[in-house]
## 1
Amino acid sequence: MTAGHDPRHATDPGRGRVAVRLEQGQVLPEQVFRVTRADLVRYAGASGDFNPIHWSDRFATSVGLPGVIAHGLYTMALAGQAVAVWAGAADTVVDFGVRFTRPVPVPDTDEGTTVSFTAVVKSVEDGLATLDLTAICGGEKVLAQARAKVKQV
Amino acid sequence: MPLDQSFIGRSYPPSPPYQVGREKIREFATAIGAGDPLHHDVEAAKAAGYPDVVAPPTFLAVLTMAALRVIVLDPDLGLDYSRVVHGDQRFAYERPVVAGDELVVIDHIEDIMTRAGNDLMNIRQEVRTTAGEHVATVWHKTVVRGEQA
C-alpha cells in the first residue's frame, strides 16, 4: 500500500484503517519521505519550534552546522507516520522513543532530501507489537534506539 | 560552565493549561503528512470511539517542548541554550490525546551528568488533564555541547 522507493511528500492523503497482523521477525516495507525547506517551515509553524537552525542557513552555519537541518521531532513525526502505515491505523502507538544521532540536512532545492524508514517486528506480546526502526538519510543512520510499541488492530 | 548538579530531583509546578484544539490537531497532522481521517474528520474519530479528532503520537511535543522553557531559562541552572542539542525523546501514552483535552505538563529533572565534555540532562514530563487524569509520560534528553565539543 506504500511505494517502496517512491518518495512520498508529507502532504499525501491518508489511507484510513487497514487490518494488519504483525508477527515477530517480520521485516516491514521501506517507506521514503521527501523533506524540503517548505516542510520545515510548515512544521515550525505547526509545532511552535522556530529555532533558526531549521530555517536560516546563515544562523545554522554560524553554530557549526552544515546548513539548515530538520527538526529532530519532524524526523520522529515522519517515523510515526511510517509506524501508522505499518500498524494499519493512526491511533495504535502506546510507546514511541528515539535517539537523535545525526542531523538531517535539508538543502534549499526543490528536491530537498529524503528520509527512509524500515522496521523489524522485534516481538508481539499481549496484543502489543514492538517495532525496531531504522531511519536513513544520505546513507547515514539518523536515529538510534528507535522503537515503537503498537496495539494490534 | 557545568550544569548545577543540585537540580537533580527537582520538580516544577504544572504548566499553564493547554487547550488541545481541533484545528491545531489538523494543522499539526497536515504538517507531518498525517492524512488519516482520525486526525481530521470528527465523525471518523467518533466512529472509532473518540470524542473528537485524535492527535498524532508526537503532537504532545507542542506542549512539552514549550514546557521545557521553565527549566532551560532557569538562570540558576546555568544552561547555555545556544549549545543545546536534542538527544533523546520518548512518549508513553495511557490514551491518545484528543481535541478538547485540557492538559498540564509537570517537569521533573531526573538526572544531570557529564559525558565526554558534554552535559546531559534527563527530563521526565507528566502530562495530565486539568481534572487529574494521567494521559502520558514524556522523556526528553537535552545535550549541552561542551566548549571543546
## 2
Amino acid sequence: MVTGNATVDLAGGHSGPPPREAGNAIVEMRGISKRFGPVLANDNISLTLREGEIHAVLGENGAGKTTLMNILSGMYRPDSGTILIRGQEVGIGSPADALRQGIGTVYQHFTLVPNLSVIENVILGTDAGFVLDLTESERRLKAMLGDFDLNASPRTEVRHLSLGQRQRIEIIKVLFRGSRVLLLDEPTSVLTPVEVEGLFSILLRLKTEGVAVVLITHKLEEALEVSDRVSILRQGRKVGELGSDEIAGAGRSATKGRIVELMFGGSPVGETERRRDGETERRKDGETDRRTDKTLLSLRGVTVHGDRGEAAVRGLSLELFAGEVLGIAGVDGNGQKELGEVIAGQRHLTDGQVVLDDVEMTNRGTAAATRAGIGYVTDDRIGEGCVPGMSVAENAVLKMVTRQPFSKGIWLNRKAIEAEARELVTAFNVKTPSTATRVTLLSGGNIQKLLLARELAMNPKVLVCNKPTNGLDVKTAQFVLRTLREQADAGKAVLLISSELDELLALSDRIGVIYNGQLLAVFPRAEADLERIGHLMLGGTDREKVPA
Amino acid sequence: MNGIDLSDFIAAMLATGLLRAVPLVLAGLGEAVAERAGLLNLGIEGMMLSGCFFGFWAAYHTESLTVGMLAAVAAGLVLGLIFGFLTISLRVDQVLVGLAITIFSAGLTGFLFRDLFGGQNVSAAVDPLQVAIPVLRDIPIIGEPFFDRQLIFYLGWGLVPVFAWLLVRTRFGLNVRAVGENPFAADAAGVNVIRTRYLAIAIGGAMAGFAGGYLAVADLKIFTIGMTVGQGFIALAITMLGRWNPYRIVVGAILFGMLRALADGLPILGVDVRTEFIGMLPYIGIMLGLVVLAGRTALPAALGVPYARGQR
Amino acid sequence: MTPRGRIVSAASLTPFVSSLLAIGLAFLVGGIFLEARGKDALLAYRILFERGLGDADGLTETFKQMAPLLIISGGLLISLRAGVWNIGLDGQFMVGALMAGVVGAALVGDVSRWLMLLAGAVVGFAGGLVWATVPALLRVRWGLNEIITTLMMNYVGLNLTSWLVKGPARDKARVAPETVKIPIADRLPAIPGTEVHVGLIAGLVVVVLVAVLFRSTVLGYMLNVLGRNPRAAIHAGLPVGRLTALALLLSGGFAGLAGASDVLGVQGFFKANWDPGYGFTGFALVYLARLNPVWLVPFAFFFSFLLIGGESMPRRADVPTYYVEMLEGLMLIFFAAAVYLEGLYAPGARRTARDESEPIVSPSGLVGETPTSVLSPGHPQGPSVVPSGDPS
C-alpha cells in the first residue's frame, strides 16, 4: 500500500529510534480529574506532550484513556485540574476551543460526514467567510492528498472511501487547520495490519515535522512499536510513564513485562498475558480437538447483504460439529456480524442454504431459528440485546415469552417469569438488586451474563456468540469463555466470532478466518498460530508469505 | 365545456396553481433547512396558521402589506424558537413538541380571531402592490400567470435560488448539512451544533410564518379559523418528496397547487364533481408520491435525534 | 415488574407531578394571557369549573363527554406504546362516525334497538380500522413512516365524509347536509339512574381492556418491547410487521368506535363539517396520563370537563371556546419541559457517560442508530415516551 518515497524507513524505526532530544512541551495536563456518577474515570492525571514525540497512552478498556483524551479535545470538561498550552493556562470548553489551540483529534468512531465531499469535510468548521470559496482550499488539499498517497478527488463523497482512506482524511482534516497536536483514539482498531503500517509511517513522518502525536491504545505491541514515550493508565489513574530509553533496544522485553504488570496490577501476569499480550500459551489439554463427527449446523454457499446493500457474506460454507468451539477470526467489518445474524435468522439470505441438524432453516426467520435450537448472543448488548426500559425479569424471557410456562395462550404468567429470572440470575451470578430492576442499571458484564443465560435457558443446539467478551473486565470475560467451553463439552456446537486472537486460540477446537465475507481457511487448533491467522486476516492466502 | 375557451382555462388554472403553490414553496424552503439540520418540524402547520392570523391582524390595523408580512414572519419565528428551545436545548421529542405547537396555535388564533374580530369575516385593506412586467406579461397563456403578479409573488419565487445557494454554497449551508447528518462530527470539527440548529429552525419558523402571511395578507386578505387546512403538513411532505432540493420542492408545490386549482376550476368548466372529492386529490397524491419514491431517499441521518455532547 | 395488586403506589404517583405541574403552568400562563386580553381570568376559570363540575347537569355533560375521549385515547395509547405514531385519529373518527350514523339510521325499526346499536358500533369500529389500514399497509409493505400518511389520511377522511354526507349519504328530506336522524328513543340508553348514556361504560371497558392488554397479555408485552426497542424486537424474533399494523389498526378501530359512540349516543346523525377534533385532545390526554391506562380515566374526566366548561365560557365570561384548545397546547408544551426537569432531578438520574443514557422523552426515533428514513424506515420506530409508573 504505502510505497511512496515519502515513507520513512520503518525498519529503522523498529530496531530502535535514534536517540532524540526531547522537544519542547506543547501541552501539559496537570492533575486532571473527571467523575461520572460513581465512577472516577480520571483521577489526578498529569501528562506532558512534546513536539516531535509520539506519546502512547496505554491501558485496558475502561482505564480512562478515552475520557482523558476527550477532556483535551473539548468533549468533556474536567472536574478539576489545569491544561497548559505552551506554558499558558487555557480553558478548553468545546471542540472548537481545542481546535483553535491547535489540538486536533481523530476519534475512534470517525467523524466524517459520509455524504459530504472530502473537501467539505475538511473545511467544515473552519472560519473562512460566509460564502464557500473552495478553489484555494482545494489546491492546498490536493497537495496534502498527494502527500498522503491518497488518489481520491476532493469532490468525492466520503462514503465512497475505505476505512483506511477515511482515517487519512481525518488526519489531513486535522493538519489542514495547522494543528500541532494530534490525538488518535484506538486508530488501529478498524485497520488491517498493512494499513496499520501505513498509518505508523505517517505518524513517524509527522513526528519528524515536529507534531506531537498522542496514540491511545490498549495494544501493547503497537504502543511500543512507534512510541517515544508510554504512559500507562489503570482504573482512572496514571500508574507509570516510560521514556524512550526504557522502551527501545534490548530492555524492551523486560519493559513489556513491567508494563503488563502496571496495566493489570496485581493480577497474575501469566493469566493476563495470555489474554492481552499475544504470547498465548496453548490450551493445556488442547492439542486434541474434541469435536464429534455429528454435524449440527451447515452453511452452504451463503450470500448475505449488509445494511447498505453491499454483499457482506459471499458464498460462505461451513460445518459446525457437536462438541466443538469453532472460532471465527477476522478484522472487524469483514462480514462477522452478518454471518451471526444470518444463522440467527435475522438476516435474509440472497443465496445459499442454512441447515440445522438436518432441518432446512434457510430464510425461515428469527422465531423459527430460535425454536429450532439456535442461540445467538449479539455484540450490541444494549442497542439490540435488551429492552432498556424493562426489568431484568422481562428481559430474561424476551425470546421465550411465548413458551410454556411463561405464557399460556394469550396470557403472561408473571410468576413463572419471575421465578425463571431469579434462577438465571443466581445460576449466572448476575449482580442486580432484584429481578425488577431496570436492566440498564446493570453493568455491561452483568448484562452480558444475563443475555448468555437467556440463550442457554432455551437449551440451544448451536450457540453463536459475536464478540462476547468485548468491553468486559477480565474476570467476567473468563466466566463467559468458560461457560462457552462447558457448553461445547456438553455436546453443543459453539460458533465464537471474535477479533481477540488470544481468546480464540485459547478456546477453539478449530479456527476459521473470515475476510471480506469469505471464509479463507478452517484448520484445527493444533495447526493454528498467531502468524498464520494474522496473515490470513489480511486476505493473504494460506501457507504463503505476505508480499512485502 | 360550456363555451369556455380552453386556453383561457389553462391560463386560469396555471395562474391559480402558481398562486396556490407559493405558500407551499415558502414553507417548504424553510422546512428544507430545518430538516437538513435534523429537525422534523410538525409545528409547521401551527406556525403557518399563526403567520396567517398575526399577519392579517397587523395588516388589518396598519393597512400596510409590509407590516403585515413582518408580523407574520415574527409569529412564525417566535414559535420556531419555542420549538427549538424544547427540542434542541431540552431534547424533547420533536413530534410531540411539533404537535403541541400546532394545537396551541390553532387554539390561540381561534381565540384571538373570535375575541378581536368577533368571528366576522372582515378583510384587510392592503395594497398588494401588483407589478406587471411589460412585454412579458403579453405572452399568451403564460404571460398573465407569471408576469402580472403581486410584488411578494416574485419575491417568493426569487427565494428559491437563494435557498438553493444557501444550502450548497455557503458555510452556513455546509454546517446545516453536517449537523443533520452527523452532529458529533460537526461538533468535533468545531461547528456549533446548537447554534446551527437554532438558526435552522428560526429560518424554518420564519418561512412558515411568511407562508401564512402570504396566504392571509397578500393573497386572500382575510383570515378564517383553521384556514391553512393542512397546507403546512403538505409543505412538509413536499419537502421530503423533493429531498430538500429547493427546485424539486418547487415542482412538487406547483403540482399540488394545480391539483387545488383543479378543484376550483372543474365546476367552472361545468364538470359535475363535488369540490370535496377533488379536495382529496392533493393528499392522496402525496401518499402516492411517497410510495413511488419509497426507498429512494436517504433522510438526514440525525433527523429527529437530539444532540448532547459526550453522549453518543 | 412493579408489585401487582396495587393500582396506585407512591412511586407510581411521582411521574404525575410533571403532568400536574404542566396543567398548573398552563392554567397560570393562560390566565395571565386572559388578563392581558382584558378578561376576568378568575371568573372564566370559575365558570369553567362550575359548568363542568358544579352541578348535576354539568357533570352529566362531562360524563357524556368522557365516552369518546376514553375510547379514542385507549386506542391511541396502544399505538404510542408500540412506538407507532397514529396522528390520523380525526380521520378515523369521522369515518367511523359517518358509517355508524348511516348504518344505525338504516337499521332503525328493522331490528331491535340493541342490535341496531351493536351494528352501529361494529361498523364504526370497522370504519376507523379500514381508515387505519391504508397507513398500516403503506408502513408494512412499503416502509412509509406513518406520521405523514396518517396526517394525510385525516384530510382525505375529512373531505370524503363531507362529500358523502353532501351526496350519497345525505338525508334527502332535509335542507342541511346531514345523515338520516336516529330517533332519540333508539339511541344509546342512559345508565340507570343517570342521564349519561352507556358510551361511558363502553369507554371504561376499553380502558380496562387496554390495561389488561399491557398488564397481562403476551401481545401487550410484545407491543411494549417493540415501542421501547424495535431492534430488540427484531432480535427476539417478534412479528414486527404484524405488531406494527395491529397497533395502528386497533387504535384506528377505537377512534372509529369513539365516533360511533358520539353519533349513536349524543348527535343522532352525522352532519357536514362536524369535526370535534378529539385527535389532538387525545394526544394531550394520553401524554399527560404518561401512557398509563389506569390514569386515562382521571385525565379523561379532566379534559371532558374542560371541553364542557369551555362551552359556557363565551357566553358567561366572554372567553372563546378556543381557549380550551390553547390550554391543551400549553399543557403539552409545559409537559415537555417538565419531563425534561424530571430527568434532571429524578433519583439515579445522574447518568454516567458509560451508562446507556435513556432519553427522557426519547428521540422520536424517526431515525434510530441504524440509518433509516421517514420515507422508508427499515423497521418500526416511533414515539417512545418512556412511561414511568408503568403497570406492567
## 3
Amino acid sequence: MEPSKPSTGSPPAEDRSVIRYNARLGMLFFLIYLVIYASFVLLCTFRLDLMSRPWIGGVNVAIWYGFALIGGAFVLASAFLMLCKK
Amino acid sequence: MAITIFLFFVGIVLAMSFYLARKAKSASGYFAAHGEIGWFVNGIAFAGDYLSAASFLGICGLVAFYGFDGFLYSIGFLAGWVVALFVIAEPIKRLGKYTFADALNSQFNSRGITLAAAFSTMIVSIFYLIPQMVGAGTLLKALLKLPEKMWHGVDLHHALGVVVVGSIVMLIVVTAGMVSTTWVQFIKGSMLVGFCTMLTIAILARGIHKDVQPSALDASTGSLNYIGTTPPSPRQVAGIAGDGDSTGSLGPMQFISAVGKSDIIEWKKDPKVANTWHGKVVKGSSLLAPGEYYTGIRSDDLMKKLDFISLMLALFCGTASLPHILIRYYTVKDAAAARKSTVVGIGAIGFFYVLTLFIGLGAMVSGKLDPDTNLAATNLAQTFGDIPFAIITAIAFTTILGTVSGLILAAAGAMAHDLIETVMGYNMTDHVKVRTAKIASLGVGVIAIALGILFRTFNVSFLVAWAFAVAASANLPAIVMLLFWRHTTRAGMIASILTGTITSVGWLLLTKDAFEKVYGLDPAKALAPFSNPGLVTIPIAFVVLIVVSLLTENRREQAVVIHRA
C-alpha cells in the first residue's frame, strides 16, 4: 500500500476566495487580540503601580484585565465563527 | 473510601479505552479517529487535552502560594488559543492528514521536512510529558498518603506513582488510539469543569476565616516563629477586613476583594534548626498584584523583566505549536468543524481558567496547604471532606492519563508515520503502521517515566512553560511562514525547525533552574541569562527561516502561499 499523502491540490476559485476572506478576517482578529495581550504584558512589566490599583469592587486592575483577556478571547472567537464564510 | 472512588474512575477510563479500541484498527482510525468526531465533542476534548496537570495542579498551586502570578499562566495559556483559531486551525486542517508534519510538508513533499518535524514533535511531546508525569507521581503519593522515602536522591514513593501512571497510559495508547483518547478527553474535560465549578461555589459559600497557629506570635519580639513536629500550612490567614473571625459567604468579586484586604502569613522552614518555621505577614493586596513569584517584575533588573516577557510570549505562541493539540484538528471532518470545535474549546478552557483563580485563592486561605505546590487543589478539596478529595484526585489523575495518552499518540505518530514510513521509505500496511506506532508508544512512555522521576521537585506549570517555549521556537515560525510568506523554501523550513528546537532545548539546559534542581550545581554558574528562552529562540528561528529561504530561493521550491492562492 502506498504511503498516505495529504491532499495538496489547488482548491477551486470559489473556495480560494473563501479561504482568503477567512484568513484575512482571522489575521485582523489576531492583531486586535495581540495588541490587547501585549499591552497587558507590558503594563505588568513596566506599570506595576497601575495594575496594582484597586478598581471596580475593590478588585485590582490586573485581575480585571486578566478576566477581560479570557472573556475577550471567547467573544472574539464567537464573532469570528459568525463572520467566517462556509 | 477515597481509594475506592479513585479506582472506580480509573476503571471507567480503562473500560472505555478497551471498548472503543474496536473502532481503531486502521491507521486512519488510530491516528485521526477516521475524521468522524463531532465538533462539539472535539471542542470539549480540546479542553480535556489542554487542561492538563499543569492547568489544574500547577496553576492552582502557584495561585495558592503566590497569588496573581499563578493566574498569569491561565491568561497566557488561553491567549494561545487565539493564535490557534485565527491563524492556524483552518490551514492545518486543510493541509494535513495524520500528523502536523503532513501539513508542514504538504507543499514540498520533502523527507527533510518530515524528519525535522518528527524530531521537533518528539522533543516537544517529551518536554510536555515531564510535568504530567511529575504531577502523576505527586497525586498518587498524596492519595495513598505515602511519606517521602529518599533513596540515592530519588523519592521512591513519587517514583512509584510515576511508574503506575506511565504503565496505565501505555496500556491505553497501545490498546486504543485516537477514538478512545478523544472520548476519554471529552468525559474528563466535562467532569473537570463541572466539579471545579462546584468546588468554587463551595469556596465562596465558606468565605474566609482567620487561621493562625496559636503559639506562633512571639509577643516579646513581635516576630512569628513556630516550633512543632507538624509543619504549619505554608500560607495562613492572619487577619481579615472588619470585625470577627470570618467573612461568611461571599460573591465571586467580593471573595477576591476580601483576599486583597486580608493579611496572609508565609511560613518558611528554618534550614538550620529542626522543626522550626519563621513567618512573614504579607498583605493580600500584594499577593493579588503581579510580581510575587516573578519578582523580577518588581525589580529594576531588565534581564528579570525580560524573563517575564519571554514567558508570556512562549505561552502566547506555544499553544498553536503543540503537536498533540494540532493533531486534534484531524479528528473532525472539515475546516468549519475545526473552527467550531476550537471556539467550544476556548469557551470551556476560558471558563475553567477563571475558576483556577478562585480555587487557588481558596486553597491559599484554607489553612491546609502542603509544601508541595502541586497539591494545592487536592489539599483544598480535602477540607470539604474525603469524597470531594477522592473525586478531585481521580479527575486530576484521569486528566493526566488523558493528556499523556494524547502526547504519546502524537509522538508515536511522528515516529511511525513520519519517520519510519515517510523518511525511511518503508511501505507499511495499515496494520503494521498501527503496530509500529504502538511499539513507539512504549518507548516514549519509558522515557517519560524516567524524566518524570528526575524532575519531581519542579512546579508543573513552570515545566509546561518550558514545553511551550520549545514548541513555539521549533514549530511556529515554520507554520506561520509556510502560510504567509511566498518565499519560504524547503531548506528554510528544515533549518528553522532544527534551529528552534536545538536552541530552545540548549537554552533550557543552561538555566539556573536546571543547574540547581536537575544537576545539583551552583545556579550562579548557569550560562542562560534568564529562564524562559522564547524571547530569544522564537525570533532566531524566524530569522533563520528567512535567511536560508532567501539563500535557496532560486531552487524553485518555494511554498505556494496558501492564503494568496
## 4
Amino acid sequence: MSWPPDKNWFLIAVILYGIASLYTFFLWRKGFRRDDWVCYGLLASGFVFHFVAMVKRGLSLDRCPIDNLYEATSFFMWATVAIYLVVGWWPRVRFVGAFASPLLFAVGIFAMFPGLDQKGIEPRYINGPVSAHAAMILLGYGAYGIAAVAAVMYLSQEHNLKYRKMMAIQSLLPPIQRLEKLNTRMLIAAQLLLTFGLAMAPFIVKSGPPAKLFTDAKFLWSVLVWSMYLSLIVLHWRKKLNGHRLAWGSAGAFVFVMLTFWGTNLLSKLHQ
Amino acid sequence: MSVVVVGLNHRSAPIALREKFAFAEREIPDALGRMRESGLVEEAVILSTCNRLEIYAAGSLHPNEMVVEIQKFLLSSRNVTEAVGTEIYSHSDSHGVEHLFKVASGLDSMLLGETEILGQLKKAYDLALQHKFTGKTLNKAFQRAFNVAKQIRTETNIQRGSVSVAAASVELAEKIFDKLTDKKVMVIGAGDTSEKTARALLSRGAHSVIVSNRSFERAQILAEALDGKAIRFDDWSEEFAKVDIIISSTAATRFVIDRKKLEPLMPSRKGRPLLLIDIAVPRDIEPEVNFMENVFLFNIDDLQAIADDYMDQRKSEIAQCEKIIREKAAGLFREPEHVRMNQQNQQAAGAS
C-alpha cells in the first residue's frame, strides 16, 4: 500500500507523541518536579489525530482496521493512549504519560516502516466477531503496556529511594505502593481482555473456512503470553511476587511481547 | 501618615532579653490603648511571638520621633531598666512596609519560609482590628502583606520542601506508602527527635504507634503521650510483622537491627514495604539492610541532607521574594495617577 491519506493523521499523532517524549526528557532532567499536564495534553492531542486516522482507515475498509502489522500496531498504540488518558486523570499517576510517550513514539516510528502497511487478502471470516476478538486482545496488550510503564516507574522510584534519596523525595512521582497497585490492576484488566479475546478465537475459526487453530504460531504464542501473565498474577496474589519482583516480571513480560508480537504475526497463517 | 516598625527578634536579641519584652495576648489591647492615648500613634498592632516582639504603628509624627517614643514606651511598659542598643531595631515608611511583608512571608523567620508566622501576624492584626486600633493605613498595609505572602507562596519555592528531620521523614513515607492512614509506626528508643518524627507521622494520619524502650517506664510515658502502646525492648521483633515504619533512636553502641535479624522476619510481612528511619548516633540499623527487597533505610545524615537541600533551595529564592516585596511595598502608598493629578490640579487652582 502506498501512502493513504489517513496515514497523514497518524503521522501527526506520532509527531505529537515525539514532542511529548522530548518534553519528557526535560521532566526527567528536572526530576519530575512539576505537574504533568503538558505531557498529558500532548498525548491527548496525539490521541485525537490517531483516532481520526483509525476511523478513516476503518471507514475505507468498512471494518475494524486490524488487517496488517501497521494497523495492528496502530490499534495497540491507540489502546495504550486511551487507557493512559483514563488512568492519567488521576493526578498522582499522570506521570505514567512521561514513561509511556517514548514507548509510543518508538512503536509509532516502527509502524511507519515501509512494508508493514500491506494490503492483505479480504478477511475470510465474519467481520464483527473478528473485530471484537482483535480489539479486545489489542486493548489487553495496551493495558499490559501501561502495567509495564507503571512497573518501570516503580523500579525507577525504588532505585531513587534506595540510592538517590534527594531525587526520590523531590520528584512528583507517585508512591511506589500506588505504582504496584496500578501495575497489578492493569495486569488483571489486561488478562481479562486477553482471556475474552482468545476465548473467541475457536468460534471465529469455526465459522470460517477450515483452519488449524491449535498449531497456529500466533495462537500458541498468545496462549504462552496469557499463561506467563497469569502466573505473574497468581504469584502476586499468593504473595510470592511483590513490589520489585512483580515490577521486573511485568516489564520483562512486556518486553518479550514487544519483541515477538510482530514476528509471530508473520509466522501465523491465520493472521496473515 | 508615616508607618514605622520597632521591635526585636531572634537575630537582634538573645532570648533572655526577648522574654522581657514579650506581651501576653491579654495585655496587648491595654498596651495599644495606652500608646494611642499618649498621642504617640494613631494606629498600632503588636506582634508578640517566641521569636519576635514588634510594634507596627502609623501616625502623623515624624517617623524618627515616632520610633524614639515607641522605644521609650516599650522600655517603660515592660519595666526594662538595662541599657538596650542595637537589640531594638526600627524601620520606617517603605522600609517598614517591606519588613512587614518579609515577616508575613516567613523571610525574616528563624526557619526560612515557615508559615506559622503568617497565622500569628493575622491573629495580632485581628486583635488590633477588633479593638479598633487599626485604621486606613495599617489596614491597607496588613491586607497587602497577607496578599504578598500568598503571592510569594504560590509564585516562588520559598515554602517548598521539608526543612526538618521529622518533616523529611514524613515526606519519605509518602513516597513509599499509598496512604498513611492504615500504617503503624514503631518507635525504638524514646528520644526527642523520634517523638517529633512519630508526631509528624501521626499528624499526617498514621494509624497508631508502638513504643519500645530499654526503660519500660519511659516507653509507657511516650506511648501515653502519643496515644500508643508500650512494649518491652526485647519484644519489638514480635510486633515487626504489623508495623510499616520503624523510627530508631536508642543509645545502643551496636546495631539494634541488622540484616541477620531482619531476614527471617521479612516473610511475615508478605511483601509489604518497610521504612526504617535511623536517627541514632551511633547508628542503630545496619546500612546493609537497605539492600534488602522492600526495605528502605534512611539515617540521620540522609534526612539532614534532604532538609539542608530544601533549605538551600529556599535560600536561592530569597532574591525573587525580595523583588516581589520591593515592588509591592513601593506601590502600596503611591496614589493612583488620576488621584494625584486631581490633587495637583486642586493645589494649582488654590494657588491661583
